[in-house]
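Field reference: sequence -> structure
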Amino acid sequence: MGLRYQAVYKVALNFEDDVTRFITTLPMETVADAAYRSGINIPLDCRDGACGTCKCHCESGSYKMDGYIEDALSVREAEQRYVLTCSMIPESDCVVTVPATSEVCVRSQQADVHARLTEINHLSDSTLSFAVSGDQVRAMHFLPGQYVNVQVPGTDQWRAYSFSSIVNQANESVSFLIRAVPGGLMSTYMANKASVGDSITLRGPFGSFYLREVRRPVLMLAGGTGLAPFLAMLEKIQQDGSAHPIHLIYGVTHDIDLVELDKLKAFAVAIDNFTFDVCVASENSSWPQKGYVTDYIEPSDLNDGDVDIYLCGPPPMVEAVSSFMQEVGIQPVSLHYEKFTTSK
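Structure field:
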């Protein structure tokens, strides 16, 4: 009896900028692994079916998919042929739609960007900001909302931070927000050791959380230092303009966590269609709007589902928003999200 032939299959990856790339999967190889082997990074965080970052849609073809959890892909989504590419093993040729641009996903060697520290600001007892500049910073190409890994000076450790600005051509700088974590490597360095002029190394950019073309109303939901990518997005929108309403709801835990409100007010003046709300969860807050971001989402913000939602915050907030959307029965045209945790 001869050995059973194990077929290889072609998978067409359709990106949202209308670019199609073809990959070939080896026997029992996942789409994510085959893509990576072909020089394409489908956005993912966990590789074990737990986070949902690599969620795509299979337009045609057959496949099997095991070993993932429902928090990453619901039963309903699976029935609608949504897939986690880190778990998807093709059983025929397939066509898969990737919710990112080919520019973001096509892998190239990530070169280190060497910069100098130009600003360190203590925005509050819980939040710092810093800026870096230099010729290599000016030459960086990234999309508003993406992040870089930043090396903690004097160590071999790296920390991920979203850009909180686009490149300022006047002084060739970009900025970031940092949660001041007791004992945190980067926050300790910035608070106690850093000086303007210090050398600092960036690597990236990374991530599929970035501003797409504004084609309909936009709802932005920010938690804590998850405000950072939205500041970069709003700077880009101010530069390009928008014919559609954009509403941001910014939530924090305590009053001391409220930062960059002056920037939000300035954006509200500069961008005709931009409005924002701010809320604080703590019952001891003196802020007039108390509660969570979901308490301030109005039906008009959801526009009967004809809306693009961007969400960045800690995992409990992301999960709460997901539950809220299920409760109100609204399926937005798109929902882009990024979870973050602090590192000690």
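Note: The chain is about 20% helix and 30% strand.
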